[in-house]
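Recap from last week: sequence in, structure out.
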Amino acid sequence: MNLKTGETIENLHIKTLRLIQGKKEFRFGIDAVLLADFARTKGKCKACDLGTGTGIIPLLMSEKNPEANFECIEIQEESADMARRNVELNNLQEKIKIFCADIKEPFKVLQKNSFDAVVSNPPYIEISNGNTNKTKPLSVARHEVFCTLEDVIKTASALLKSHGKFFMIHKPFRLPQIFSLLEKYKLAPKRIKLVFPNKEKEASMVMIESEKCAKPYLKVESPIIVYGDDGKYTRQIEKIYGRN
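Predicted C-alpha cells:
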C-alpha cells in the first residue's frame, strides 16, 4: 500500500482492521465508532454512508455484519481517495464502494429508493455559527460547508426503501430541528441514545434511528457514559471498541 506524504497506517485494535490517516487532516473520533456500533444491519442488506470521510464507518460496520454491502459518497476527492485505499487495505473491495459525489446530488452515482439502511455522521455546526477551521478537510467535516442538516436527511429519505432505516449522530441542541426535518421527509424516529462525557456533564452527542414511512414510536435507550470517575474509558466504551 503506497502512502502519501504525512500519512500513517494505524491498527484500530478491532479484529484486523487498519486505517490510513493523515497527520494534519481530519481524523476519525469516538462519534464514528459509537455510530457504527449503534447502527443495526442484518444479513445481506444494502447500506449507504453519507459523507464517509476516510471510510471508517463502513469498515467498522462490515466487521459487525460481513454480509452487508456499502455504497458510500464523499465530496472531497482527497478523502474519497483515502477511503478507497482504506477499503483496499482491509480487502473489502467487494463489499464497500466509494464514490466522490455531492450529498445534494446523490443520484448521479446512487439509486433512489434502493437502500435498506443509510448512516451519516454529518457536520454538526451551521456555517453561520462560529469561525470555520482554517484547513479545508477539518472545516468540511465539522461545519455545514457543502451540505446542511436538511440536505442529509432529505437525501437519506430519498435513498431508502420503504421501512428502510436511517442512523445518525448529532448534537443534542439540534434535536428540535432534527425531529422537524425527519417528519418533513417521512422518517419516523424509533430509537434515541444520548452520549455523556461523564455522569456529571450534560449530553454531548445523540444518536437517532428513524424508519421511512413508518408510524412514530420512540424508544429512549439507556445512555452511554464515555469516561468514569477515574478519567478512563468506561466498560461501555471499552466494549464498543472491542477491548473487553
